[in-house]
Structure formats: structure tokens, C-alpha cells
Amino acid sequence: MRPKKKPITSDNKSSSTQIIEQPIDQEVQNSYLDYAMSVIVARALPDVRDGLKPVHRRILYTMWRMGLKSNVKYRKSATVIGEVLGKFHPHGDVAVYDALVRLAQDFSLRYPLIDGQGNFGSLDGDAAAAYRYTESRLSAIAEETLVDIEKEVVNFSPNYDGTLTEPQVLPSKLPNLLLNGALGIAVGMATNIPPHNLEELCQTIIYLIEHPTADVEDLVEILKGPDFPTGALIFNPNQIKEAYILGKGPIVMRAKTEIVESGSGSFQIVVTAIPFQVNKATLIERIAELVKEKKIEDIRDLRDESDREGIRVVIELKRHTYPQKVLNQLFKLTDLQTTFHVNMVALLDGIQPRLLDLKSILAEFIKHRQMVIRRRTEFDLARTKERIHILRGLKIAVDHIEEIIRLIKRSKDREDAKNNLIKKYKLSDLQANAILEMRLHQLANLERLKVENELKEKLKLEKELINILEQPKKILQIIKDDLHYLIDKYGDERRTQIITQSIDNFKQEDLIPDEPTLILITQDGYIKRLSPSGFKTQSRGGKGVTGLEAKEEDVVERLISATTHTDLLFFTTQGRVFQIKAYDVPESSRTAKGRALVNFLELGDQEKVSAVLPITKGRGAAKFLAMVTANGLIKKTELSEFASVRRSGLIAIKLKGDDSLRWIKLTSGQDEIVLVTARGQAIRFSEKNLRAMGRAAAGVRGIKLAKDDRVIGMDILETQKLKIANPKLLVVMENGFGKMTALKDYRLQQRGGAGIKTAKITDRTGKLVTALILDDKNLPEYVSGDLLVVSQTGQIIRLPLKSVKIAGRATQGVRLMRFKNDQDKIASITLI
Q: Which CATH superfamily is domain 23-193 in?
């Protein structure tokens, strides 16, 4: 059992002080609970009825008492602060002034309750000027929270020193809790309520009055979501609805941005609205840091052009960048996208904190307004009855004015006259005093009519007021009329746009056009992306245009045709594989050097990219990856083993000695494989001769090579195409010659043989450098499309495929390209 408290009296008998003994744990617990409840009730949480915390309520009530309405002169904020501190809120002046400042900021409150004059802070986090410099008064909409307060519509309680009384809650015609929202951190709980549009909110309350059984899902059809003072965008109505149903939940906010193309061909991202509670200056500093740290590399310039007309932050982008990609990076890494965590906690009846859903908040407001209107009606009815009572006495006086005058003249003093009036005409004290206070001009006929008309009006008003009190529907109609009045006077357009799509469904590639592109890679590991439109089709045998300005010792190694959404698999000399999107490679001009691959892939020391495989979404029946090394080894691995390539890479193949992985193709498991060597040998065999292996396997022999020979090309022949098309093997020699040969001229062999001759190799043609299988199902005589040929020094020519000669296996072919440099060689080809 807990020990009983033992009062201990002081040794000084003249003192009445008593010390009460109590366990320290109990004392700490009680003291902490007292403190916690004080913070919850008297400081941090708003009242669900008027949406205000005590400090805000005291500021508004003080300004109302001072007569600082919206139609009078501004007064120094210091005067208001002094009044609030001295009479109602005995706390620090800084805390009170900060609360007043927030009530005046149009970027903090959707509908500011104070009309401020002077510096009241900014979106950049600038503090307001000291209260001796600023001036303030109530805004017009704030007066709607205080109207009728003198009619005893709310309860008052003594102020901190008992010299005055203050309202426990304001009458608040405004649904202020949801209108302007609230933010507060108490002890063990917090509140974070978003602001809303006045017209939508009032219409929702009207709907709830007319349909009391409506649920939150019905209400959300009208109140679609928050409306933040800074505008911007919010996403996912389902998520918003869930927050309204549960009373808590996340709402994703994004800045309002626009992509503008400048005259130089580059783009700008223009930010015209930022998420609620985001500091603009801090946001700009964060973007600058990301550029400095090279986490975002496509931004050329950043400037703030905001003025009194609104926000305007301009982000200049480098040329040949995808603005949507940069914008997605900004959303991911900065406060251009943030989340508002709804937590609708408020005080019920000013004392009980509760997590409330949307309907509960609106129902509490309606209940509060019903109470206010009932008490106002009762107050008006009492005053009306008092006036009717006096008017009836005045009517008796004007009806018997001459007799009353004589009666008064005969009386010895005012008290005697009053008693005589009461006795003769059966009047009350109030009526008798009213008659005695009548002025002579009220004896005129016109004044007599005024008394009669006023009496009729008051009797009519009395009947109406009684009718309101007897019929609750009348009170609800008054609430609706008040809400319509608010809509007509203060309603405005929604600032925050609601996007129906979920933010989770947005992918970076959804914002980047899927268009043809070229990927060019050099031997020293530089990569760049080019637009095919930069290369015009030329006749066979031309010199083309410059496609790269590489270092003297660097040469072009491969050219890949893809689309911007293509997944690129990079296989390295150490047998690892990496994956990036084609659009992650920055687009460059034709003559640009490009970027080092180490910027995109986590390559080790002495590790280089040896093969690249583009994988598009429509890859048909592909189930396997077929890999071929320069020394003629081949391996088949299931494609599913490369479904999720880690950022640090995956093992793809085990390489032996100085061998390197050079070619990777997708296969269905039923296809045929063609390998071509530098000395002009080719082998064609069925994929069925090749069993599937794991990623760590080394593979088996695909072709038997001569001592000084190596594999220069590998491609897949889909077996079904043999029936509907006439596939051809395109080979290109290092000195610029090339040809096409029908694949039916190559017999099917067993894997591992030496193959048969596919081209006549001479000093004039040079060795073979690449090979490609084509089919002519689109055109009966010639293969459709263009051929792009690149030399080691970056010279590029684009020519129609139909200009390439179809010839037998043991022929030299025709010249495709002439070189500007006699030492130059063909590096790679690709199709467009």
C-alpha cells in the first residue's frame, strides 16, 4: 500500500505553512501530467470549434476590444502585444508577436486573420520586423470569428489575474480549423491539419447539414483535398480520402513547374509555386549544392526571379539534356516534392484531445454553431421582450398623454410621479421611468407613430425568434445562410491543383520520350549519346561527317542503335555485367568527346567494357543470353538470371587468360547462331547444340580458330524467319569494303568446327571487322533501313542498305566508305 500523506507543521507556530510528505515518483508523475495537460489544453492544440489556440484567440479578442477592425486605421503591433500580455496572455512577448505575425502571413494562412502593414517575413525565411515597426488590424474575414461575441453566445472565464474575463471559445462563423489548418506539438501528441478552400469547405458543411447520414466518402466528393496558400500540386485522391477517413495520413506535394524551350535550343525549368512550408531560399541553396556535388550535372545556371507578383525560380539546363529527367532528379533530391503528414488532432469542448476524421470535425463545427445561434437568439429574444415591455408603456403614455402630463404636474417629485403612474396605469418601474424620460418632441404625432410601428416590428421579431428556438431546422437554415454569405463574400478559386494520378505511378521514363538514339563507345572507355537525325543519308563510298573528336591514342570501338528507353547491359573484361538506361547517357553533339564510363558504372582498376547488349521492352520470346568471346568460346545462360542487376554489378562469365567477352545476343532456345572471324571464316549451327549454363561458367568452343585469327562478329538467326524471309549476312572489312550474302549459302554445321569462307580477304579490303544478319521481309529485293558506319577516328557515314551489294561468299564486296586519314580503319556498324 502507498503510505499516507503526513502533514508536517512548521516549528514556527505563527506560520500556517504545512509540508505534505509524498513519494517522489508520485509527485513527479503528477507534476508531469499537470504540465502535459497545460501544454495540450492551454498552448499547443486548437479547439475544434473555432480552430484557434489560446494565444491566437486572445490576440483576436484583444484587437476586437480595441476596435481594430478592418475599416479603421492600423495601430502599432507593439500596442496590441502590450494589451495581450497585460490582460490575457502572461507569457513572453516574442511568442505572442510570432503568433500575431503568422496570422498575418499570406503564405502561412490560406485566409490571413490579421491585416499587417510592414515587414511580416517572407517565403525565404526572413524574420518579421520588430513589433515597434509593424502595424496591424483585423482582416475582414477575421471579424467573422468574433461577430455576436457581446451577445453572451459563448462562455467567458476570468483572466489570469481575475480582473477581466475572456472567451473560452469564439463564436466563429468561419470553419477555421479546416479553413486555415493548424500545426502544434504538445506532450505525447501533435497536430498537423492542412488548410482548405473556403467555398469547397462551406459547400461540404451545407451538404452535411442536408444529409446528416453522409459518410466521409460522400463529403470528399465536394471537399476534394487541401488548398495550400502557396498553391503547388497534390497527388492521389485515394490517399487524400484515406487521410480524411482515418484522420491521419501522408499527402504528397509537388512544386508547380514548367519546362520552357529557349531560343538556343536548351531548356529552362521554371518554378512558379512551391510546396507548403518550404523555405524558398533553402530550396535554392540545396539545388546549388547538388550541382556543386555533381549529383545533378545538367544544370547550367540557377536564379531567383521572384517578386511581389509571385514566385519564379529559373533553372537553366545544358544543351542536349532531357528536362523531365532533371526535373525528376530535383523532385527526388530536393523539397520541390515533399509530404504533408496529416494528423487531425484537436480539443473537444476545449479540454479533451482527440484524433478526428473529416466528418467529426465538421459535425463539431455545426454543433458549435447551433449552440451559438440558439444563445444569440435567446439573447435577442430577451432584449426584444424588454423593448416590447417599454414600448407598451410608451404607447400607454402617448395614448393618454394629456392625463399623464397633468398627473406629473401634480406630483411633488420624480419618485412621486413614478409611483402615481404605476398605481394609475399598472405600469412597471421600467415603463414608468421610460415615460418620465420622454422628451417633449416625442409628443408630436410623427413620434407617436414611430412608437407604434416599432412595437409592431418588435412583436413580429419576438414571434420569429420564438419560432427559431422551437424549430431546430430553422437554426440549421441560419447556419446554411451564414455559409452562403461567406462563400459570396470571401470565396475564391482553388490554388492547389489536385492530380488524380498517384505519385508512385510516375516513372522517370514516363517523362522522357522513347525515341531513336545512337550510343557510341571508344576503346578508352568514353561513351556518348547522339541523335540519328544529325546524320544525313549519303551515297555509298563517301567520307561521311565527323562523329567524334577523340584523343589521338583513342579509337571508336562500337556503335549501338537503340531507343532512349532501352536497357543497356555492359559486360566487362572481368566478366561482370552492369545495367543503365540509354537516357542516363547524356546526349552530346557529334564532335563532343563524351563522358567516361566510370561515371556510370562501378568499374574496377584495369576493368573495361568489352560488350554491350541493348534490351528493349518488346524482346519477344527471348529466354536466354548467348555470349561469345574473342577466342571463339560460347555460352548460353537464362535471361532470368540477369533480371535484377545490382549497382555493383553481377558475375556474367568466367574468362580464361587474355580472352574477352565481345558479343551478347538474346535467343529463344530454338534459334541458329552465326559466328564470323577476322580471316573470313563463318560457321552456322543450331542453338540446340548449346546447353544452358550458370553465370559463373566459362562456356564451350563455338568455332575452331586458326592461330592468328579471332572472332569479330556473332548474330542470331530466328528459325521462323527462314520460312518468311530471305535473311542475309552483312560483313564489313576494315578498309571500308562490305557486302551481303544470302544465309542459305551457309550450310548448317556442328558447333566447334572451322566453318566455311564468307569473304575474300586481301590487302585492299583488310580483315573483317564486323558482321550482322539482316532479313528482307519488309522489301522484296533490298533490306529496309539505313546503315551507319563509324571509323576508329570517329568518321561516320549513313547510307541506304539497298546500296550494299549482294554477292557470293568468296567475294571482296564494294566500297562503303572512304577515309580522310589513310591510317584510319572501320570500327563498327549499326542499323537505323
A: Topoisomerase II, domain 5 (3.90.199.10)
β-strand 497-499 against 700-701: which pairing, if any? unpaired
Cell 556498324 sits on residue: 829
Strand pairing partners for 812? none
- Per-residue burial over 669-689, b if 16 or more Cβ lie within 10 Å, else e, is eebbbbbbbbbbbbbbbbbee
Q: What is the pLDDT of residue 555?
A: 65
Does the pLDDT of residue 437 top 60, yes or no? Answer: yes
Contacts of 66 (CB under 8 A, 6+ apart): 75, 79, 80, 83
Amino acid identity of 385?
K
- pLDDT bin (cut points 50, 70, 90) of residue 315 is very high
DSSP string, 567-581: EEEEEETTSEEEEEE
Q: Cell for 505?
A: 505511378
| Residue for grid cell 459563448 | 154
Query: How many Cβ atoms sit within 10 Å of the Cβ of residue 296?
Result: 19
- Reduce the DSSP state of residue 114 to 3 states and report it: strand
Crossing angle of helices 358-399 and 445-470, rounded to 10°: 150
Query: Which single residue is written with the C-alpha cell 566455311?
Result: 756
Distances, alpha carbon 453 to alpha carbons 391, 460, 489, in Å: 10, 11, 33
Asked if 93 contacts 59 with a C-beta cutoff of 8 angstroms, the reply is: no
Residue 310 clears pLDDT 50, i.e. is over it: yes
The residue from 133, 207, 425, 490 that is catalytic is 133
What is the Cα–Cα distance from 690 to 692, expressed in whole angstroms? 7
Query: Which tens digit of pLDDT belongs to each residue from 735-787?
Result: 889 998 988 888 899 998 989 999 888 989 889 988 888 876 544 344 457 88
Q: What pLDDT digit, counting tens, does each position of 440-485 carry? A: 666 666 677 888 898 999 999 999 999 999 999 999 999 999 999 9
Distances from the Cα of 144 to the Cα of 147, 155, 175, 347, 781, angstroms: 5, 18, 10, 21, 84
What's residue 355's pLDDT? 94
The answer to whether residue 131 scores a pLDDT higher than 90 is: yes
Integer Rg of the chain from CA: 43
Crossing angle of helices 358-399 and 472-490, rounded to 10°: 100
568-584+595-608+618-831 in CATH: which number? 2.120.10.90
Name the superfamily (CATH) of residues 366-490. Topoisomerase, domain 3 (1.10.268.10)
In angstroms, the CA 142 to CA 114 distance is 7
Task: Name the residue with higher pLDDT: 604 or 229.
Answer: 229
User: Measured at the alpha carbon of residue 589, what is the angle toward residues 583 and 593, in degrees to the nearest 5?
Assistant: 90
Q: What does pLDDT average to over the chain?
A: 86
Q: Do 382 and 73 contact (CB within 8 A), yes or no?
A: no
Number of separate helices (H) and strands (E) present in the chain: 17, 43
The kind and range of the H/E element at 723 are helix 721-724
Higher per-residue confidence, 139 vs 549: 139
Residue 654, number of CB atoms within 10 A of its CB:
16
709-721 pLDDT, tens per residue?
999 888 888 876 6
pLDDT score, position 281: 94
Q: Where are the beta strands (DSSP E) in 564-696?
A: 567-572, 576-581, 595-596, 609-615, 624-629, 633-638, 650-651, 661-667, 672-677, 681-686
Fold of 256-335: Gyrase A; domain 2 (3.30.1360)
Q: Report d(CA 51, CA 42) in Å as an integer.
A: 13
- Please, what sign has the CA dihedral across residues 469, 471, 472, 476? negative
Task: Give Dmax over CA atoms of the chain in angstroms.
Answer: 150
- Candidate ranges 204-213, 606-615, 678-687; pick with highest mean pLDDT: 204-213
| Strands of the sheet with 672-677, listed across from one edge | 711-717, 672-677, 681-686, 756-757
So where are the chain's domains? 23-193, 256-335, 366-490, 568-584+595-608+618-831
Best CA proximity match to 524, nearest among 578, 603, 591: 603
- Top pLDDT among 726 and 131 is at 131
Active site residue 322: no
**Helix or strand holding residue 204 (H, E):** helix 198-210
